[in-house]
Amino acid sequence: MTTVVPAITIAGPAQHRASRDLSLPSWPVAGILLLYPLWWALGLGVLIFPLMAVPMLFLLVRRRTAGRPLHLPPGFAWWIIFLVAAVVSIAALGADPAQTVVERAAGRLPAVLYKLSMYGSLTVLLLYAGNLTEQELSRRRLVRLLAGMFVLTVLGGLLGMVAGNFEFTSPVEWLLPPGIRNKGFIRSLVHPYAAQIMDIVGGEKPRPAAPWGYTNTWGNNFCLLVSWLLVAAAATRSRAKKNLAWLCLLASIAPAVVSLNRGLWIGLGVVVLYVSARYVLAGKLWILGVLALATATIWLALVATPLGGTVQARLDNGKSNGVRSFLIERAMDGFTESPVIGYGGTRNTLGGRNSITVGESSECERCGNFTVGGNGQLWQLLYANGAVGTAGYLGFFGYGLWRFRRDRSAIGVAGSAALVSSFSAMLWYNSLVTPLAFMVLAYALLWRNWIEGTRIEPSQDRSR
């Protein structure tokens, strides 16, 4: 009788590596977006981005060391130039430009390190989202997640309207020592609140901010996300979901107006004009009918409700115009004095535009320390990172717009509209943290449309 001895195969290290599951899970990206209300309520908010960047970076490095390629987005060299310039500019932190508050470099370093950590975290988010495959996280699902963020923005705006004084102490805030959690900057990160109470048109009134912390950030995200709701609505076959999307758009008019956010109004105009131009050039003239209907709806809402009076009152009260002009002038003066690498970060002005007195008083309500570079991403880039950093930042997103200009899919138009919106917004809004996160996710969607080689509409995508 012949005895058959089964062959025993011993897998070597290379075979073990090959057998490992090296796919990138979707939960780091989906977890940030889908669970953002939870992060906000816990007091994590924007802190979730560096926290999630840790597992994302680990997963990317693990896959790269196993021999799988790591794809880089087109124009990534521009972004590297920006990051290098941001690091190099730290050397100028000790400089005290004219008419700014004198402070040691060590005192300015924590804020700069915070910004660098956020820029680094969002770089990881860009690479991770761009390297995900359709099986790991489909473009259709990512669009739906971004559309959900717009719905969250509208809900936060409505909360700010009806309960402007709503706020609570988050668990993370409770864990911090009183001396730390009472600092203004820390409080803005960990303390959830519905609105900023401000006197803009006579009397203190709430301006929607939840869940983004600031009214300006709320308005910026509104513009960056609104197109994704339209893409998601067009992609679904559910009539109920389409109706809910249109209802959300209609409901968004009220908080958008009540926010008194002129930058938001301008940004929406830019988005509408850009998208309309893209569709008209593609021969889709029906967009003109949609534009006319949307214009009529907004006009009716302004005429038939008190919202019209709110808009007019805001246009008649440009209290921030003088401050913005003052800060732009200071930013350009600083850029002239240090044009290559800037000053590494922002500076506080010595007094305000009407007086060198530090702090407000009954005699000079517009006096006080204003932040040079705090009134727009462009001015911050020029002042903090100089011409090199500004060129890298603008070069990256500008290159993306040019590279993906022929993408006429719904995702292509919405993604490029978000980037165009960001270019107008940088004149009055700062991008860190969530606006820049939505910008890099828009870039990742454009990049994935290009890398897949098929510009499929979301409705044609059968993957999860």
Automatic annotation (TrEMBL):
Can you tell me where the transmembrane regions are?
A: 38-60, 72-92, 112-130, 142-166, 218-236, 243-258, 286-307, 381-402, 435-451
Signal peptide span per the entry?
Answer: none
Keyword DNA repair, does the record have it?
no
Any coiled-coil regions, as ranges: none
Q: Which UniProt keywords apply?
A: Membrane, Transmembrane, Transmembrane helix
- The superkingdom of the source organism is Bacteria
State the PANTHER family in the record: LIPOPOLYSACCHARIDE BIOSYNTHESIS PROTEIN PA4999-RELATED, TEICHURONIC ACID BIOSYNTHESIS PROTEIN TUAE
State the protein's name.
Ligase
